[in-house]
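Course assignment 3, question 2. Fill in each field.
Student: A.L.
Task: Predict the tertiary structure for the chain below.
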Amino acid sequence: MRLMRAMMAGGILAAVLAGIVLAQSYDAGTELALVEKLTKARDDYKATLSELYNYYLRTGDSTMADRADRELRGLTFAGQYEYAKKTAGPTTEAPVTVQKYIPEAEDYYEDGVIFADSNRKAVQELSLKRLKKVLDTWPESNKAPAAAYKMGEVYAGYYFRDFDLAGKYYQKCYELDPATTLPALLRAGDMYYKVGRTDDAVKMYKLAVEGSRDPKARDKAQAQLDKLAKMGK
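Answer field:
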């Protein structure tokens, strides 16, 4: 009996010591790295599942498309905890945007992209109409975010130089697809800064630093924030 008690005590002591060692090994930097890894895994999971859903739509496999659709929608209501922010409870992420393959939207988008490369303002105006048609008629299309981004590019270009509108459509791109790999938030911040909307620019830069999937965009946004901070903005 004494031997058994001694063995149990030894096991408890070993477990406690192991816990101390683990606690000393995992510092705040380790925690942050793990949280970033988890966040990326979540984003990749949703993005890949959305691509799979669109693939089944294009190939006409309605059964598998419905299955992927249900899983995507399930993510909308799945509570996910925040980590490394000292929060106590679960939080539900923003609804997953299920983007669909829509042939008509594809056609209008392709026309808009082609017309946008023209060196004639009248043709670029036609590009804007084509791209706006995608946004207004098929906002659920998988081309809608890219259409909004392209509109931002056209408005920011030589013939229009309407930076306020450009910022609006860059921001729209992110709103339609928060997982976009396009540097939409950075570009929105740049446009708002050009027209003196400093508060809006800072907001976009902060969002870019926190959530952009483009590492270069995150770095550039942080550089802009640092620059504005030195200016007292």
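Instructor remarks: The radius of gyration is 24 Å. The chain is about 75% helix and 5% strand.
Grade: pending
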